[in-house]
Structures
1.
Amino acid sequence: MGSGAMTNSIVDISKADVIVIFGCDPTESHSIIGSEIMKAKEKGALLLVVDPRRTRLAKMADVHLQLRVGTNIALLNGLVNTIFENGWENKKFLEERCEHADRVRKHVKDYPLDKVADITGVPMDQLKQFARIYSKARAAFLAYGMGVTQFVSGTNNVLALSNLVLSCGHVGRPGTGMNPLRGQNNVQGACDMGCLPGDLPGYQSPNDPNVRAKFERAWGTPVADQPGITSMNMNELALEGKFNALMIFGEDPVVTDPDQNRVARALRSMDCLVVVEMVMTETAKLADVILPAASFAEKGGTFTNCERRVQRVNQAVNPPGECMGEWQMLQALAKRFGTPGFDWETHEDVFNEITEVTPNYSQMSYQRLDEANGLQWPCTSHHPDGNSVLHKRSFPLGKARLMPVHYLPPEENPDDDYPFYLTTIRLHFHYGCGSMTRKSPILERESPEGLLFMNPRDGANQGLFNFAPVGVRSRRGYLETRVQFTDQVPPGLVSLPYHFSDTPSNQLTNDAQDPTTGMPELKACAVRVEPLARDMRPRPIQILRNENYEPAVEEAGADYVRI
Amino acid sequence: MYVYELERLEHLRNWLTLKNEVLRPIADESGNGHWGVVKHGDVVPFDMDLRPDMSPKGLFFAERETVMKFDGTLFRETLPEQKPQVLFGLKACDLTAIAYQDNHFKDDPYYQARRKNTLLIGIDCQEACENGFCASVDAGPHVDTDIADLVVTPMPHMADDEHGWWVICASPEGQAAIAGLGLAPADPGWENWRDMARRHAEATFPKDTHIINGIQRINGRAVPDEAWERFAHQCISCSGCSMMCPTCSCYATRDVPEAEGVIARERIWDSCLMVGFQKEASGANPAAEAGKRVYRYWYHKFSDDVAARAGRYMCVGCGRCEATCPGMIGVHSIMEKIANA
């Protein structure tokens, strides 16, 4: 349909009469949005949740489709098929705003309800109920998250989702939309600024000679005409010896990227690794140089949230010691390299340069952001006050295209040796790799260590008790933790939070990737759960590694001291 | 009790800055109120309607503080040092809460070290604030003269006209603080005017049947466990209510290793809504279910048993929990739900 951002805004949740939460857990990972959903539900909106886990919102939902992990496309095709078969589609919208509806209509005939129920494990009447409620809604807001994208079929999942949204015409109006929830506070901003391998700032393509010419004029230097490589690709090339230096800003890929043993090997094989960080992370321990970063409260600039709202960040305190903002660090480096064009005096100068080269940001300025409490792009001369709803009259492509997509199971599936699906989750007490939140004593007490969440029935079959020590093994790694019984996960599925560097879920995860985006399949892999002696203490990964349990990773630098 | 006439509140505020550090509600860029220092000579007008988002409890009961150090042989208490300070413009709800905390922490040297050097200047509210229901729980809108050092109350006036103030000396310390300011004694009759203003203010509160009904149902054990469990689905244990609540007083402790062989014991604000609050070392947890924790929280705020011990309900009706709760189970929402449970 267009660019990667919410088509609507957070406020649209309160304008919808049906809210669909697809493959995400906003109360845990986007608490403010979760709160808006609860409010809307209390005011009478119908809540539909699609999630293999029985999340908090799923417990409150009017309909919860508890599908098997990785069967999104089968489910969505089945829903679209039901909608077409019953004539519930929005014919006017399909006629005027979309193309290829017939192709999809024909294609999804392969997904009759009984077959879909077989694949997904969701009863047929629930599927039909969902299809009816969604298609007959006046305005239906759909939000999705990593449970859609973090699969090898991530891109196709999103296409299947957009088929559903388009066939019912739930886009381009208040209270509707197809709304991805971003993983971090400024992921949207980073993508907007071209931190994607194939984009220049503002999602402008380096393949377009006019775009290249514009940037070359603005920056006074040639710009790349080839797309870059994804972070997963960098690891591969590094292991092949073709990628030799990397500078990482505020990220801990050793904890947060899949198959961490491989990530660590890749980083270690580089000639030069620079990490810009506030705290000593697992990645920073591998660095040749660590540069001290300023925190959000110690620098100025803007963050862009998932509803495309660019918001000012105001410096509250001075950064300690030699810490500085990232733009200052890049500027200092450019100066040493003798590269011109980095002579901003303030972070406002940086923003002004952004508005010059990014059409979506062109009518923004610090003053206007302050006055309007943030502006939502596209903020252009046609829409100087920004846009809360995208695609009101047309799509960037003109007409939106429905795309037939096929269901494919995840790359790795449970078998006799590894009988459980493992999915990764977030807990609201912790953020990202935990390098910040795990310093807070109360948060650390609330969830001090990674737990393996398991259905009580599976637990009983394995002869486990609640909080029993267990080993978890996949084809890529091994870790030890404790098991917690919960009805959140169905039998056959276990889940592990990804915040904990001593029980890192990414020891186990698969780095199989979506062929289009390079997004790794973090949400599904096969594992085996091995009971440990009842009185044994699960050993943190750092100790396990030293015991040469798995691909040996020799430690760089100091011992691991928990602060 | 001595009562004086005052032309402008800013005069009194400025006078107090001569010998004390004076804190008053100020609005930051986003319009949120918090307690900030006012310097001598500062002419910013006093904003009567601004109530800080956070209650003032953190000024006495610190969010995080070191309480002692152990160097292997000796335990050393680490008492805070507090210069004389004034809290200027406290509303009745917050003052009621401070009085409650004074009693709760009466043997707590850390709390008392900060508290004993603090002068409390209360101000009478003229109308109900958003979410406020102090009148329903006997905590406002006017300041009880037992719980402040000075109370300022506006003289009768028309709408937004400039008006004077009466300054009521509610304690010997309050009396001493204004000695030398040269204020004229108030005309008799101020008390009638103040009483009338209180009745006017009380008339501005919206209906509170859900609060009264909810208190009765909580004390009558009339809310089934399943209902609490249902409400608790919406509690994400963010602890926002406890942090904002002017009477929540629970804390956790932990030992932080410092230099070789030295540990510092810290205490940190805690919340009974968190699952780890009551978890025992064995892993057993008497309040493992979220419903039990939510019930306990509200039971403590409105229980007649607690009131019998503390002399009043813990809740002072400030409504901050309603404003902050992301799960729609702040005080008004939960009492509505209880009333309909």
Note: Chain B touches chain A through 21 residues (CB under 8 Å).
2.
Amino acid sequence: MKPNKLFYLTFFAISVALMVGSATAAEVSQGKCIDYDRGTHQITLEEYDLQFSDEHPYGMSTGVQTVFDVTDAMIGIAPEPGDILRLAWVPKAEAKSALRVMNVSKQDLRKK
Amino acid sequence: MDASWLYMFMPIAGVNIFWPGLVLIGFSVGVIGGFFGMGGAWMVTPGLNILGFPMAFAIGTDIAHIAGKSMISTIRHSKFGNVDYKLGVVMLVGTMAGIELGAQLIMWLERLGMVGNVVRWVYVGFLALIALMVFSDYAKARQKKAMGLVDGDKGTEGFTWYKTLHKIKIPPMMHFKAAGIYCSAWLPISVSFITGILAGFLGIGGGLLRMPALIYFIGAPTHIAVGTDLFEVMISGLYGAFTYTLKGRIELVAVFVMLTGAAIGAQIGTVATKYAKGYGIRIAFGVAVLCCMVSIILKQFKYETPAAVLILGTIGVICLYIMGIMFKGAAQELRDKKAREQAL
Amino acid sequence: MKRMIHRLSGMCAAAWLLLPSLAMAAGDKATNIVVVADTRRVEGIMRYFSDLYNTNIWLFAVWTVLLTVVMGCTLGFMMDFIMERTGLDLKSRKIVEH
């Protein structure tokens, strides 16, 4: 490789590194969909934990119900009560604002 | 016994993958690709799918790993020996558009929930075609040998389709100096567009199709075709990696695991070609293609474990065979060298 | 043999053309598939990239391409370096691969 190519590569790497500053971490929650209100754009989720097993492939229920605002979210297969969902969300003002909503249980059937 | 340490969690695809299988696929594709001088990516997409990756992830991951691998071979060539850059750039237009279209097709099939089935059957057809080509090539070579003809001269003189194609004069007409071709720009663009679609759809580099297309349809000399194709694979692989990542269908960890394996494997494969003799190895290649095809069919009918065993077993055996050739040959060469030095 | 190749490739082409109509027949259950990387189960650098996947896919794509290039070049140079040291003659034949 010529030196000037190397230079461009380094330059590129540095500019990427600078961009990294703008990356924010999102929380991820998984659980059973209790309700999906299309009018208010809200999903109520019964959160599951990380204890995966053959009987509970999506984890065990913690019993905690959380409400997510999905106004700005990218939603896959439409959630219905009973579906297992996985959400990536960020705190926004008082609410938990979802970025992406994945329908884990329905998507599993389509996999492969 | 607890075998969980053999499985690695892939955070994006959300699957647990048998990682030694991943290493073996990467390594084998390097060895086999390096040895036979053509891709080998055709076994990666089915292989990843059989190991448990959803089909779209298998394709995206394969394409990214091709991009990385073509970087390695480009380094080996140190420079693009014989690239017609003008031809390459013109073809990039078609290749990139084709890859995008192929990727869009995959995403569309995924939305319909049938990507796995469709891609698997297209692969079965594709591999059947490769196997047929390999075997007919072998039969022809045997025939020639039996008739006492010397193999060596390229059989390209037989096909002059490009002469007809060059007569199509749709502007803009272009002159490609390095390749010595004067034709309509639409000819290379459309050829690369079609190979691009297949590359984006199957997650392959496309060299398997682009190389003959460059020679027979466009009329490029063989050495220019090789270099230009390499250039094309690298850039289009990077574009494919980019677009599949944007679509969220890539598993970065798997790409790196395979790439490392492929880098080592490719060295062994290319060195082994020095010591290989005869046509027998081509049969082995054809058989590998057929086994790969059978394992895809097994996977299609939900025989997951036999499918995995068959594909990993086949590429493992071929790998060992090629490594055997390489180590035996290399040891002999080093012995001879030593003997020569001592004689002086 | 040649006729078989032609016939087979013809069949492939036909299948290719049939694809869209096949998909049409599947009806309107088309829905976008959205994937969320499960960052709860990974740590360190993997956590960073999974986070990036969830929040900023463009940056993730840039990283992928960049890392692929860097890794390809590094491995390429490293392997060349190692192979030179084996004492084998690697220059006397053409290498064609990708």
Note: The first helix of chain C runs from residue 2 to 25.
